[in-house]
Structures are given as C-alpha cells and as structure tokens.
Amino acid sequence: MAEQSAAPASLRDLVLYFLKLGAVGFGGPIALVGYMQRDLVDDRKWVSPEDYKEGLALAQLAPGPLAAQLAIYLGWARGGVAGATLVGLAFVLPSFLMVMALSAAYLRFGEMGWMQGAFYGIGAAVIGIIVRSAWKLARATVGKAKLLWFLFAVSALTTAVTEREMLWLFLICGAVGAMAARPVPKVAAMLFPWPFLLTGINGPADGSVLWTIAWYFTEAGAFVFGSGLAIVPFLHGGVVTDFGWLTEQQFLDAVAVAMITPGPVVITVAFIGYLAAGPLGACVAALATFLPCYLIVVGAAPSFRKYPKNPRIKGFVDGVTAAASGAIAGAAFVLGHRAIFDVPTILIALGALAAMSFLKKAPEPIIIVAAGVLGFLLAPG
C-alpha cells in the first residue's frame, strides 16, 4: 500500500489547532494522542502516519508528559525548533491559565467539594472516550501485523497488571520489531518585592522554596517515564510526604483540577506550585516540568528521523509503537476500574462511548460538561 503523504498545512494552522486542543481537549494523555491521530492524520491529513508513529514512539521512549512530547515532535516535524516551540506553548498555555485561575479561587474560597462530585461523572465519561481512542489508535498504528498485535497484547496486559508503563518493555518490543524487520541487526531562588507572588495556601513562602520546586519538578519532568498519569504517584511522595506542601485532600483536588481542565494532565504541577508558593511557584513548577521534555524532543528528533527508511529503525519504531498502543489500552483498564465502580458511572461511561462512536460531530467538551453535571447530581453522599 502506498504511503500516505501529509497534505499542505502551514505552521500557523498547526499552532492554532494545538491552541484549540489545549483549550478544549479533555480526557488526559491517552485521549489527547487519540485526538491528534484522528484530527491530524485521519481527517485533515496534515501529518503523515509515519511522522505520527515516529513521534509517538519517541514520546514513549523519552521521559516526561506523553501528549506534550508528541505535540512538540509534530511541531518540530512541521517547522523545526520554531515549530516545536510554538506548538508546545500553544498546547500548554490554555490549561496553564485555567489552572492558575482555579488555584486562585481555591486559595480564596477553600477546598472545592463540588469538584469531587463533578469528577465522579467526568472520570467515567473520560474512560469511555479513552477506550474509543485506544481502539482507533491501535488499529491505525498496529495494522494487520500479527507480531505487532502480539507486542500490543503483551504491553497491554503488563500495564493492566502492574499499573505502570515500563521503559524496558518498550525497548524490548522495539528490538523485537527491529529483528523482525532484519534478522541480523547491528548492536548498536530569588527574592521578589511582591509578597503575593510567593503566597501559597500556607502563607508566604521564602525564596528557597522556589529552588526546591524548580529542582523537584525538573526531576519529575526529566526522569518519570510513561504518560502524564505516571507522574501522579511520583508527585504524591514528594508533595505530600517529603515536603508537606499539600495535604492528602489538597493533592486529590490538584489531580481533579488537572482532569476537569483540558490539555495535558501534567498541568497539575501548576496547581501544586501555586498552593506551595503562589503564582510564582506555579510558573516555576510548570516551566521546570515541561522544559526537559521540550529539550529532549527537540534534541533527539533530528537523529530519530535521520534514517527513516532503514528497515531496522523502522522495525524498532513499529515495535515501540505497538507497545505504546498496548500500554495505552492497559492504562485505560487501570483507570477504568478506579473510575467506574457503580451503576451511574457505568451508564455515564457507556453514554460517553456511544456519543463518541455514533454522533460523529459530538464535541468532547460538551460530553465532559454533561458528565460533570450528571456526576454532581448523582454522586453518593
């Protein structure tokens, strides 16, 4: 079958698309990469299937947030470093601004109990969206290759059982794909005069807290592998247990804020930074988390695409992509058994899945808002 070529699209078009996706793209990393595949590869044909597969493979192999890395790679593929920078900013900025506003409201009005009720419905609807996205992504990236479906199944089962995504498994699947393509591979803290900028939920923070935030969230962005959801347990250990910046309930509220706002789930770091050290803490936390993944993608992308026709490289990418698709399906199971646990959540999830499958023009934000309202009304207690 002839390779599909990307249709002409300006960098401006791509930036505007990611600005919109960052503003209305609900569902977390798994759903977001599905939207990119549906919109940019299937519908608009702005991105070739090969570029998408390479970007997804690189995003899975590199540490940091999955959806943001894929967006940055696609921006790089279209417009080099400038494209990667503009697309990355467009994708992250809308949700960052929303989280900043929610953080300010949280400090002013206290803990948001309504959020837990809304998330009761939103979490179930998101699973329905994720299931459909995972299935479409698997069909598009794995195709009819039996070996790739086997790698997909192994990755999905491993992720579902262990509840984590494993870099070594992606590398093994990539190596298997490379060997199948060619049997004999080669081995190859500053002080500021405006106290409100450093005022969090526990009052004004001193300048040293900013350095701690910068270092800690840089570590999170540079060394935590998997989707944006993989960063949550890492953050819990530091934010609640080690540093005591947030209580358990405040941390749960931070995760809920990330899920009810569009864009990358990792934007929860801005909420945490805001509560720990005010608006400046939010900015430092977000910059420290996203900068490493930007530098990794921009730095690795030229080498990653240097030999796109090499059978071993192509086989490796196919293997990693199959593993990534399987991990996404496994993650949908992990998230599902936590978000869907009674009759109302089952009905909400099935309703969202049906709406996405049979109402082709149904916008995700409307589905999410409707699920949030139903969750608020039906949540127990």
How would you characterize the largest beta sheet? 2 strands, antiparallel
Low-confidence sequence ranges: 183-193
Could you tell me how far the N terminus lies from the C terminus, measured between alpha carbons in angstroms?
56 Å
What is Rg?
A: 20 Å
* N-to-C SSE string, H for helix and E for strand: HHHHHHHEEHHHHHHH
Q: Mean of residue pLDDT?
A: 78
Share of helix, binned? over 70%
* Strand order of the biggest β-sheet: 1-2
How does the overall form come out from the CA principal axes?
Answer: globular
Number of strands: 2
Class from helix and strand fractions: mainly alpha
Strand content: under 5%
Question: What is the helix tally?
Answer: 14
Features:
mainly alpha; globular; 14 helices; two-stranded antiparallel ribbon; 2 strands; 381 residues
Please summarize what this structure is.
With 381 residues, the protein is mostly helical. The protein has helices at 11-24, 28-43, 49-61, 66-109, 113-142, 146-162, 167-181, 207-223, 231-242, 248-260, 268-304, 311-339, 343-358, 364-378, and strands spanning 199-200, 203-204.
Would you mind describing this structure in some detail?
A two-stranded antiparallel sheet has the order 1-2. A hairpin with a 2-residue loop joins strand 1 and strand 2 (203-204). It is mainly alpha-helical and 381 residues long. Helix 2 packs across helix 4, helix 5 runs antiparallel to helix 12 and helix 7 packs antiparallel against helix 12. It has a domain at 11-188 and 292-378. The chain is 76% helix and 1% strand. The chain is globular, with a radius of gyration of 20 Å.
